[in-house]
Amino acid sequence: MSALAAVAVAAAFFWLRPPWWCVRARAIPTGVSRPSRRVVLVAAGLAAVLSAVTAPAASAIVAWSVAGAVWSGTVMVRRAAWRRRRAAVREETQSAIDALVGELRAGAPPYAALAAVARESELVDPVAHVAASGGDVAAALVAVGRRPGAEPLVAVGQAWGISEACGAPLVAVLDRVRSGTREDAELDREIAAAAAPARATGTLMAAMPPVALGLGSGLGVDPVRILLTTVPGALCLAAGVAFAVAGLAWVDRIAERAEAS
């Protein structure tokens, strides 16, 4: 019964909140919307009742502790992946602005310079298509600039619109935008480098309890059996997981606030 309850809890958790794209692709077919928060809470409640009825207390506590740890780890991994994607987009945006300023300084017309940059940058390619079709280039640049990491393109779009409306030289304005973007990127790298040791320390502190369990097993104490088969041990395991997750989330939130400011 305990094994059945653990499998039911894990199946409900992974079906509703799949942590990897491959699991999501297989568990949730294309075209099916993700379940709402209410559906997730109801399913979690039903799984909790099922585990409490069919499984021993210790097994249920361990199963939900593991599910909570997996869910928290998945959220943190996704946030780290989002930060990496944002940094990559920021670098591509900087390269695109540098290339656009270089083309303009070489004497290329703005639309020709934009087309040349689009051939090397997927980020600017949609804007080049808008320009080729006679659309609003400034609005297209602002729209692309709403992507996380591409915010400097909003300033480029505004400068493009002012240049078209007033006839002001575009290259001078874009040169200032490029300088400001470089300064912001350098500051972001410095803050990320300063926050990296704090994140690494939090991860190391969260990894120490499993190492301690291994040391205890080597001494012949068998702490794993106590944690997994007794109610006091399971409660200690749940408390340890909660403190570890809270510590990691706290460190990550502090680092994110520093990066955002």
Quick structural summary:
This protein is mainly α and 261 residues long.
Write the layout of secondary structure elements.
Elements: H1 2-16, H2 21-27, H3 37-54, H4 57-105, H5 110-118, H6 125-132, H7 137-144, H8 152-166, H9 170-218, H10 223-229, H11 231-260
Task: Report what the structure shows.
With 261 residues, the protein is mainly alpha-helical. The protein contains eleven helices and no strands.
Order of helices and strands: HHHHHHHHHHH
Summarize the biggest pleated sheet: none
Mean of residue pLDDT values: 78
Secondary structure: helix percent: over 70%
User: What does the overall shape look like?
Assistant: elongated
What count of helical segments does DSSP give? 11
Oligomer: single chain
Beta-strand residue fraction: under 5%
Low-confidence stretches: 20-32
Report, as a whole number of angstroms, the end-to-end distance: 51 Å
Rg estimate, integer Å? 26 Å
Q: Kindly name the structural category.
A: mainly alpha
Number of strands: 0
Defining traits:
mainly alpha; 82% helix; 261 residues
